[in-house]
Design brief:
Order of helices and strands: HHHHHHHHHHHHHH
Distance between the termini: 8 Å
Structural class: mainly alpha
Number of strands: 0
Largest sheet: none
Radius of gyration: 18 Å
Number of domains: 1
Shape: globular
Strand content: under 5%
Number of helices: 14
Low-confidence stretches: 146-156
Mean pLDDT: 83
Length: 304
């Protein structure tokens, strides 16, 4: 099995755990930006430690950054930070499973952005998988019961869909930029280039959002540090998931990785049903099944 497939599945699994812990922080303790910063602040030292350990074990030197690397890394870091804030905000509007799923518009958007920025096209089966997955997202974008649902217009323009689509755009941009960043580093193996790009990105995110919190929500920094019992494990799952994502991006185009990464929804719905006790409608389940079909198309097409 190709390494990028294994890395993507691991990334999706750890990301699901991270979203669960982040949701807990958002609904119990922290503000949207506080819960967002907690993810970066607690994962950045762990990412740096992982990079140092890999350097020590392999005896490699740090890859040499290029001007293109800094452009891709900074753009990806800011895009991911804002996308994460959108998802955390979304948790207050839809249930856990639907909130994460709406962000999956990043699959089709990463394909388009990747074509524009990196000139990386997708094959016909992958394009089909993306279309099937997008149909599933559309089914999941109906307003929750009790809200006004007026057909396609209501599906596209309710607040939850707006946050989901914006997060998808930003996640798609960050995915393509992170692939560009790993490809722009000179020297080192795939894992070393992935870890290097990850450390730079999380440092930028921790510093940028930390300064914003100090200016606008100073009390949140103390609350984040006090939440270490939850934020610590969240930082660990975030680091493991991000390292797996970056490794997959170093090996395969962002569109392929993101399309297969929809397997996260299987984990998400299991957590939603059996841990959080949330109930999903028949239409939401149908949308999730379409996304599973999309994942299977990618998986079977990628096997030798």
């Amino acid at each position: 099995m190709p390494v990028w497939i294994i890395a993507t599945i691991l990334a999706a699994f750890f990301q699901n755990l991270r979203f669960l812990l982040q949701r807990h922080l958002k609904v119990t303790t922290l503000s949207t930006m506080g819960a967002t910063w907690a993810r970066f602040a607690f994962s950045m030292p762990l990412a740096a430690l992982a990079l140092a350990l890999w350097l020590g074990v392999t005896g490699q030197a740090l890859p040499s950054p290029t001007p293109a690397f800094w452009g891709y890394a900074l753009t990806g870091a800011i895009g991911q930070m804002l996308a994460t804030a959108c998802v955390v905000t979304l948790f207050g509007r839809r249930n856990f499973a639907v909130g994460v799923t709406l962000a999956k518009t990043d699959v089709i958007l990463s394909a388009l952005i990747g074509l524009v920025l990196l000139g990386e096209a997708v094959s016909l089966p992958v394009a089909l998988a993306i279309v099937v997955g997008f149909a599933g997202v559309m089914l999941l974008s109906d307003p929750p019961r009790g809200d006004v649902a007026l057909g396609l217009r209501a599906r596209l323009f309710n607040a939850a869909s707006g946050y989901g689509l914006l997060s998808g755009l930003l996640f798609g941009l960050s995915a393509v930029c992170y692939r560009g960043a790993t490809l722009s580093l000179e020297g080192g193996d795939d894992l070393l280039r992935a870890a290097t790009a990850l450390v730079v990105a999380t440092f930028v995110q921790t510093l940028t959002l930390g300064l914003w919190l100090a200016w606008r929500e100073a009390g949140q920094i103390g609350r984040v540090l006090a939440s270490w019992r939850v934020s610590g494990p969240m930082g660990l799952t975030s680091m493991l998931g991000s390292l797996a994502w970056f490794t997959a991006f170093a090996l395969q185009t962002a569109a392929y990785v993101k399309a297969l990464g929809q397997i996260e929804l299987v984990f998400t719905f299991l957590v939603s049903a059996f841990w959080l006790g949330e109930r999903s409608s028949a239409k939401e389940i149908a949308g999730a099944l379409l996304l599973v079909v999309s994942v299977l198309i990618i998986f079977l097409g990628a096997l030798p």
